[in-house]
Amino acid sequence: MNRIEADRARFREIVRGRIRADLGRYLSTTELIARQGEHAVSVPVPQIELPRFEFAASEDDGVGQGPAARGERSAESGDGRPGEGAAGEVPGQHAIEVEVELEELAEMLGRELGLPRIEPRGKRNLEAEGARYSGLRSRGPDSLRHARRSFDAALRRTIASGQWDPKNPRVVPERDDLRFRAGKPAPRPQSSAVVFHMMDVSGSMGREQKEIVRIEAFWIDTWLRSQYRNLEVVYIVHDAVAKIVDHDTFFHLRESGGTRISSAYELCLQQIRERFPNDDWNVYPFHYSDGDNWSARDTERCVELLKQDLLPRVNQFCYGQVRSAYGSGQFKKDLDLALGTDPRVVTANVSDRGEVMGAIRAFLGSGR
Fold first, then answer.
1. Which CATH superfamily is domain 192-364 in?
2. Rounded-to-integer distance, Cα 256 and Cα 247, Å
3. Is 0.85 surpassed by the pTM of this model?
């Protein structure tokens, strides 16, 4: 069994090496999101073949015989591109599904992007009931028997009863001498965080823009879940009006109205005040848009909300601007001009999926 377990461990390490090598590709696709479970994700990796010897047939003339020049592809092998060309008889590549814990996936992400661990800010720790075996009792299971305390009780009883003989120092514990560890309630700090994902769902935000947001949100949540014991996620969508929705609605809703970004910030602030006070929670608002806002006056309102109300209550505010054929991209310029020197504000441009990795590194790289 030990050899089998060692072989399995070695195989798992090889598989995880393949995942780490392809992590950049997973960071720009939705391949993992559809396979996500509560605590793990199913990762497709190319099938791994164990090495083996193949013996040539006796009628072969030898290696390298024939009219082809060195480096030319064999006519039987095809051009190697999957899904192209005529039907053939050569077997194709197969993928296997490997289940990876989300915490392990977060560790790979942190190593790939060089992300620092997050230190909870201020008093944002909730107390959870725990238990410590710091007490004793006279009854309990054998697994909790305290050997030293049981011997001490038996020794005291032997001496007190006059049975102790220095020439023959024997101590025979009786049932009443046994002592067992007992648990006592002990509240312990338990870090908690809330993530607000806010997205513009007006007509200028198309399907590709939402897929980019979906990829970013998945990896952001994966990393933050590895940093906090409790993580709540709140999804807010907005056009001219903001509202709270569930996960599926967030990524598939599309409205045709205008855009008033301040409505999302006002709703986020309301939720923080009513449900997630910053003395108890680490707060992370993320906003995604193509940069169009209803008016310059509303942008001024957004900056005012951030300066006076949101930034004093959050660990960090992040704005990701996705490229759209209809978006002006002006909102990021206004934010950078007004709040570009504040370390609690991070903005990033995401023109396409290839820039998702850089945006995630910018959002999570400060360790706030």
1. von Willebrand factor, type A domain (3.40.50.410)
2. 20
3. no
